[in-house]
Amino acid sequence: MSLLHTREKKLISILYRNNHWIKSSELASQLSVTSRTIRNDIRKINQMQKKTIITSSSLGYKLIDPAFVMKQIYREDPKIIPNTQKERIFYLLRKMMTQDHINIYDLSEEIYVSASTIDKDLKKVQAFLDNISDMKIKKKGDHIYIQGNEKEKRTLVSEILFQETQNSFFNLQNYQPYFPNYQLEYISEIVLSITSKYDVLINDLSLVNLVVHIAITLDRVQDANLIKDPALSINQETPEYQCALDIANELSFAYSITIPEREIVYLAYLIIGKKITNRLAHTDPSLEGALDSTYAHLISQVLKKLEITFGVQLFDLELNMNLALHTKTAVDRVKNGLLVKNPFLTELKSHYPFIFEIAIFLANELYKETGYAFREDEIGYFALHIGSTYEKINQKKRNTLQVAIIHSKYFKEITDFIHKIEELYHLSIRPIHVSTLYDQKKLNNLEVDLILSTLPIDIELVHPIVQISPFFNQNDQSKFEKFMKDFYKQKQLKLLKKLIDQYFHEQLFFKNLLFHDRFELIQYMGDVLIQRDIVSKSYVESILKREGISPTSFASHFAIPHAIQMSANKTAIGTVILEKPLKWGDYPVHVVIVIVVKQEERKDFMLLYENLIPILTDPRKIAELTKAKDFNHFKEILLKEYVHTS
Prior knowledge:
The chain is an alpha/beta fold. The protein has 25 helices and 16 strands. The protein is globular, with a radius of gyration of 30 Å.
């Protein structure tokens, strides 16, 4: 099949995945081009192949022979010309996974770039490898190759697939084009049937991950790329091994492949890494053997450290058990080079930043104790466990509204009435019996945030009043909820203004600076903070370490670098508005807010972190902040933006 450009390949992939007529407008929307461009691309594809492979009708377009087309594209002639550096990086990775040695000069002619450009790309490829394994790119004369064991290479293949099918975690059909020799739905049916037989629970996301890993295994075994780790062993009586054995037997028969014993053990570890572990060991006898007391004790100690560091009390038996189980499984995954993808990662980082920060702390403490480093996706699952407990424990603390209820002495159901409101909103309510106007005047002396009254009040009071019926019906609830929303918003605004005035400093505000990368910026700000005796050199190293675990950038083009430990001499916030956007993890960044925290003021960090990020998550707000004339104007925009955030 003649050379195809990346967009043309994507167009064919969309047609393959859908397997029905698709309008040009729909294809154009998915590829961010015009319908005319789609028509031109399809005409070009058919002309280049010297036959019609994409047919058209009034219903749209579709592939004539999908299986043949995908086989040609992904197997017989995988020369899809990459246009950008990112595309070249994945092209190089795929090519090095299918060929032992690649000639750099042949490669440069193949993708129409210079050998020096490929050398630059290889540095990015190595950085990508460093994030997931110990594999190295080696050069021998004019040839390059990847050095690493088979488990690492399979991890790399899965990472490439997951990167290329972003936001499609749950859809097996998005991975099918990469495996034309195997039917992923068929493999999925086998896995579900056999895991059900042995009572091994796997959720939807884990199932997709597992099926993709199995397809990679079949591919590698077919090409004689086998696991050779002599230390890989398992108790053959475990349900996971029995599952692996049955799955291997079914697939061996279906695809005429001999699957060696060591590959079956590897498959068993894949299953261990994907099974559900969120049941409670203390209530589920079947998990008694699964829960290692070492991990339970370790998690207990980490939660105590967490309380000291953040001032957050999170110890909960259910959380302890769930985290211990998850840690054991996560360590098994790291040991065996298995990847887990977390479709909730971006949402967790942007909408629950403090919860994710707690999970970062947890992962770092586990690394200190176990020596195993966890990737962002895994840390995201720790955050999911922590988040549910954090919400449960802190719900009552969050609603600190002091409410008084004015009622008639004839209102006999007042106790039930109060109980209903307290249950609905987790509030502490003070009932006040009022029978005369004089009593009402005394209300001005009450220390409350709100007065709810079942009686009409005609005089002016210093406290806001919401009049409700004795039945607290839907209309009453709506009025009360509106008040609460406005009250908390004003309370947060007042608090945020106080924190901004207290910790943002004009001497730490910089505009129109340029840096090569995020680490240079952090080092620059670190030097400024050291000169002012705000932090030590080791604190700056802690900020850099935190960045290495998970970039602190957000999709709306800002970053908030900070340390894991809170040991600054003073709490302070530095601000950098960049002259040009700086690549920071996955996102270009325009505004950088560096937060350093003194241990005694750690709760202020929590409040700042949770309240600043919602302000900055709209790119339009960042655009306005980049135009700030000076420090005071920047602060003014921050608070103004907060007022418009609800």
